[in-house]
């Protein structure tokens, strides 16, 4: 029986429940006493805590499936370029071609930022909250905690709508057009109303959630980090500072000692992870879709072990500090442009594969003229790096077997971290600096991040503007390849600056006496366009407006 159930663990919730009913009853002589097999009924779901929890588990699958993205949101930003030409980032987002007719963000990242998918997830939350609340069979303690989980997840889904579209219809009841008719169509709430709803929901859920939840679940920290992020996104700095300070003061989260291992740590094994999508090793423990699609393309003997889906840009590389903590533009930093990869900070070596570094089973050479298959690709000839760099962070090149055998749906088992304690520290530091200036608590929060990576404290006496620059650089480096940079560019209102020029890679040639020469070059696929008059929000899909008369005439500006 266990083997049969195990095969269905990744099936949709309704399928799981029906299968469980079938298997359990096949072990009984009472073959006529069966529940309907074509649907979950109120009698089987809202009276049994196990069945209700299965329904909630299905809602958790709405969290971003970041280990199955071959073209992640990082490629929307100035941090990286997709190594092949056909996916969403290069064909749509980079050229700012999104419109109402193609606004359902396509490709592998569509789900968590798609209007229809998000409202489907919200409806699941509403169904769960309504029925668990009304259940006379479920224990009060169970109901309280599980409803709080659902409200937190619903707030997260609204967070993504809020970032994408601004003010959106707030729906908290279960709508049924057959019963309610046209009253199911709701107008957009304002930007401020949407933010206030998220804040209120997160605060209400906070009181009923555990301090440290079981692995893969949301707890108090998740509710507050969503609230604090949305406040920061909206520029509500005093509120954001207070929310993040509450996490710092009241909850037992801490920075993981090992930055690189954090992204390979499972479940509650790290006290830094606050909200994440959890994966289990599929099959016999194999799993390398993430590692086999966005990492270095060619390894030993020229084997194509990855698609090269994330190519870090020279702009990102240049923001990594030296190991003395100074930025490379500082003439006292010791940076040598002819030896650019020496004496850089730890996170550079933990995050970037560069020319001459080792990955998986081979030394990776992106320099030109030596016949390396990883030579920088300036013509889109194949999947070799467009920039001369590959991503290392989040990839397991020690225990997995990489290559084509794992491209066919073997989900990588690393957790996809959405928020962690480093978010709390840097969110607090930024908000407090904007609200009150660079006081001692701002320095303390930033220095904890720096010290974890063996960097010295920030220099004392920074102005508010200088601290702002330092925090923004720290965010870029600390959160590289965690799909945060694009949203930072939007909320700082600098996207039209950073995303309106070509991005660069590094062309390395072998000169006289074998001396390497380094020259920045415009990267193929690195051209960017961003229209400030409209691209700070995405268009509402025309298909949604056509169905909902309350949305007609209320499209986002510029579309």
Briefly summarize what is shown.
It holds the Pfam family SusD-like_3. The chain is mainly alpha-helical and 559 residues long.
What does this structure look like?
By secondary structure, the chain is mainly alpha-helical. Helix content is 39%, strand content 7%. The strands form 5 sheets. The chain has a two-stranded antiparallel ribbon. The chain has a two-stranded antiparallel sheet with strand order 2-8. Strand 5 and strand 6 form a beta hairpin. Helix 9 packs antiparallel against helix 10, helix 16 packs antiparallel against helix 17 and helix 16 packs antiparallel against helix 18. The protein starts with a helix and ends in a 12-residue tail after the last helix.
Provide tags for this entry.
about 40% helix, cell outer membrane, disordered N terminus, 10 strands, 21 helices, two-stranded antiparallel ribbon, TPR-like_helical_dom_sf, SusD-like_N, about 550 residues, SusD_RagB_dom, mainly alpha, RagB/SusD family nutrient uptake outer membrane protein
